[in-house]
Amino acid sequence: MLAGRKILLGLTGGIAAYKGAELCRLLVRKEAQVKVVMTQNARAFITPLTLQTLSGFKVYTETFEADSYQVGHVSLARWAEALVVAPATANVIGKMANGIADDLLTTLFLARGQIPVLLAPAMNDEMYREEIVRDNLKALRLRGIRMVDPNSGQLACGTFGVGRMAEPGEILAALAALLKEGRDLAGLKVLVTAGPTREALDPVRYFSNRSSGKMGFALARAARDRGAEVCLVSGPTALEAPGGISFLGVETAAQMMEAVLREAPGMDIIIKAAAVADYRPLKPAEDKIKKDSSSLTVTLARNPDILAALGRQKPAGQVLVGFAAETRDLLENAAKKLAAKNLDLIAANDVSRGDIGFDRDENALTLLYPGGEREEVPLLSKEAAAHRLLDAIAKIKNRP
Ligand code: CTP
């Protein structure tokens, strides 16, 4: 996977810079071509000569240094297939998250174009917990930048905590996975739905559910990162619309249905992760309902099933994927929905477990196929679970 691949390795100023050198050695041993960029602070911890000797290439340090009479940062970015920054200090993370380009590494980051970026944060545990740092990491993740999270252990400052850079072997494995993932969905159109819907009771109140939209948004970002042209139709959530996709915000099940049925015909893949309200108040009140009686009876009307409608009109070659949120008889119920809605795959989600599913950052899924096969996606971040689901969908798409 790594042999012959062109990797840019960025080193910034932390004690873990020596592990960056070890990562360089491991990459070269796997026959990758490694060009190293060091910040000024990195050079306080380890010398360019060490990295030059390990990589076999000149080490880059200055923005305005000529590289065969070409603009250095642009030619390096064009040369590379991936950028890995290990260690990534709180400082470089902050600069990258905010578009500051005051040295070669941060300038290269802005000039990276489509190449994937992997960061291995390393810092003191207090710094890693700091809200500003968390926000910066989140902003980068939302833009498709990947992280190898730091481990916990003894830190250089003597304390124990989370902040110690992942081991070089872990970073190598994450990079290999990232390169393998590649852009296997390039040229495909993917429609994802996410979030809850809201069904008005009166002008100020509504019925809804606990869906946060996190799983659907993670799927949209992951499909984008794998090269797909993505349309995300979402009910109201607290999440930021991912960049580089077409985003359609809706409120009710009826609006979601309209948007989805309009977009569906041209799609290669449709993933319905939204938690659509099955019922809506039959007659929403025109004015705010007053508490002038001791009880209130609301008549609900059934909403149309969007996924079932898509299943009925599915064009040849389109892959249709649903979710099944269940609190009991998970697999039986999911299998019924798979058949009833004419799906190619259903992801069964046990929402009775408190640690996964609705409004959590992690998920565990069981994938069910029409032939009866099953596949487990173990407890993972929603981002990683999204990639596992896309792996399964890409396999279906590539079946002869
Ligand atoms: N779904 C949909 N439109 C609806 C209800 C559900 O498109 N009106 C889709 C969801 O996006 C999900 C799948 O159908 O992909 C299953 O949703 P779920 O809520 O688990 O099940 P329901 O089909 O609504 O059945 P029930 O509520 O009876 O379990």
Explained architecture:
The protein has 400 residues and is α/β, with parallel strands linked by helices. It has two domains: 176 residues, Flavin prenyltransferase-like (Rossmann fold), CATH 3.40.50.1950; 209 residues, CoaB-like (Rossmann fold, 3-Layer(aba) Sandwich), CATH 3.40.50.10300. It is 34% helix and 24% strand. It has 14 helices and 19 strands. An eight-stranded mixed beta sheet has the order 12-11-8-13-16-17-18-19, with helices on both faces. The protein has a five-stranded parallel beta sheet with strand order 2-1-3-4-5, with helices on both faces. Strand 18 and strand 19 form a beta hairpin.
CATH level 1 class label of the largest domain = Alpha Beta
Q: How far do the termini sit from each other?
A: 25 Å
The quaternary state of the protein chains shown equals single chain
- Give the helix proportion (percent range): 25-40%
What molecules are bound to this protein? Answer: cytidine-5'-triphosphate
Q: Identify the CATH architecture of the largest domain.
A: 3-Layer(aba) Sandwich
What average pLDDT do the residues reach?
Answer: 93
**Strand residue percentage:** 15-25%
| Uncertain runs | none
CATH superfamily of the largest domain: CoaB-like
- Summed up, the domain count is 2
Query: How large is the radius of gyration?
Result: 24 Å
By DSSP, the count of extended strands is: 19
Brief summary of the model shown:
The protein is an alpha/beta fold and 400 residues long.
Chain-wise SSE layout:
Layout: E1 6-11, H1 17-29, E2 33-38, H2 42-45, H3 48-55, H4 72-79, E3 82-88, H5 90-98, H6 104-110, E4 117-121, H7 125-129, H8 131-142, E5 146-147, E6 151-154, E7 160-164, H9 168-181, E8 189-194, E9 199-202, E10 205-207, H10 214-225, E11 229-234, E12 246-249, H11 253-263, E13 269-272, E14 279-281, E15 300-302, H12 306-312, E16 319-326, H13 330-340, E17 345-350, E18 362-368, E19 374-381, H14 382-398
Helix pairs in contact: 1-3, 1-9, 4-6, 5-8, 10-14
